[in-house]
Amino acid sequence: MSSTKRRKIADNVPSGLSTEKNGAGPKKRASRLASPESSRESITLAGSEPPESITMAGSELEADDEEPTKSFKDLGIVDSLCDACAALGYKAPTPIQTESIPLALQGRDLIGLAETGSGKTAAFALPILQALLDKPQPLFGLVLAPTRELAYQISQAFEALGSLISVRCAVIVGGMDMVPQAIALGKKPHVVVATPGRLLDHLENTKGFSLRSLKYLVMDEADRLLDLDFGPILDKILKVLPRERRTYLFSATISSKVESLQRASLKDPLRVSISSNKYQTVSTLLQSYIFIPHPHKDTYLVYLLNEFAGQSAIVFTRTVNETQRLAILLRALGFGAIPLHGQLSQSARLGALNKFRAGSREILVATDVASRGLDIPSVDVVLNYDLPPDSKTYIHRVGRTARAGKSGHAISIVTQYDLEIWLRIEAALGKKQKEYETEKEEVMVFKARVEEAQRHSRNEMKNLHEDRGKRGSTFKGRRPEKGGKKGRDEMDREEG
């Protein structure tokens, strides 16, 4: 989607709705709620009335017609928050911020659809912080996130953007002691960032904690919240929230479940869509694949990591076991690899992420627990060692690189068993990917050393499984019984 297309909204239509009177605006036309698959970007009033919509001007516009880039101040953000944005290095608003912030400042409910890595967090954080400046009160905003890591990241974004106005945040997630969390809630923070299961525990069990005076609710990565079966818990939370509130629902993809959640929780919302189709990746991302026999996967992975030596990489796998095995194998070969998966304790997961962010480890081997929302500033390469089960997860995985306008590589390893999934992913993206050029002779140079490291990793994995459940072991607890239900407190811990 060209930048010309994104920004071609008339300056004199700040609300995002077209009017017939100003000749510059597009014609008013009645249409159904724009479907996310529609190939034109639109802001649509989602209600029972036939909605008005603005359709961005087509790509036939000349470059010299382009409007000057807007600043945060032009969007209506106050000076103290503009200073915080400048201090964080936000030079200009991203398209989702340009479209959604003016509407949010007018007090409208929003549905925001944009590709991952497009600045959705600031798009809802800035309007909430600005409203908090006008009328300071405790427990002003609540942000619901699907995973613990994303909750911590959103809280850090709020604290960074609100640093000049001393905003206080509390993170309420599973896997941590409830007593310090209850104490943090007792100190009446301005913003609570939570995963739904643990928040409901506090609403039911923590004396004196209620959200009756809440003014803003945000559901981030809403499709993922519903994929993790948080639906019934969200219904219970929505029942105890005040009706008079502003609600923002943000997601990279949309589904029928998300649309039913929207009907249940939003009043007369505007849809802000910055995606040209249902499955969107940024233009600075170079995507390719290698097609190889299954037994050579490890050797080709080592070859690719060697090709991108010195650059930071995330290797995505399908299972906890494979994540741990690959991390051991890569370490045995001298790579600085660290695993991240749902079987690690919460402190170990945060430790792994911080080491990778700080650059003391350059390879993160992860299950899909790391595919959503995590903003690691400089990931150069994403390698899909195991293909994701669906196109939506693929979008989120490759969205860990090429963030905020930077370029990045995403390479998928496709074996004879993955062809069907790969063709489905290509069909969803709407284009054939390029094959990454490799010379078999060069790859097979690594074979002997990789086989030796495989033997070492097999022995290590055997020891880990034998120690399972013992104090200090990597794998926590016994294997769950088949068909056994996950407790509410564990729902925000993705097993991957």
TrEMBL record:
Residues 296-444 form the Helicase C-terminal domain. The lineage of its organism: Eukaryota, Fungi, Dikarya, Ascomycota, Pezizomycotina. This is p-loop containing nucleoside triphosphate hydrolase. GO terms for molecular function: ATP binding; hydrolase activity; RNA binding; RNA helicase activity. Residues 1-54, 451-496 are annotated as: Disordered. Residues 101-272 form the Helicase ATP-binding domain. GO terms for biological process: gene expression; ribosome biogenesis. Keywords: ATP-binding, Helicase, Hydrolase, Nucleotide-binding, Nucleus, Ribosome biogenesis, RNA-binding. Belongs to the DEAD box helicase family. DDX47/RRP3 subfamily. Pfam families: DEAD (PF00270), Helicase_C (PF00271). It comes from Venustampulla echinocandica. One of its GO terms (cellular component) is cytosol.
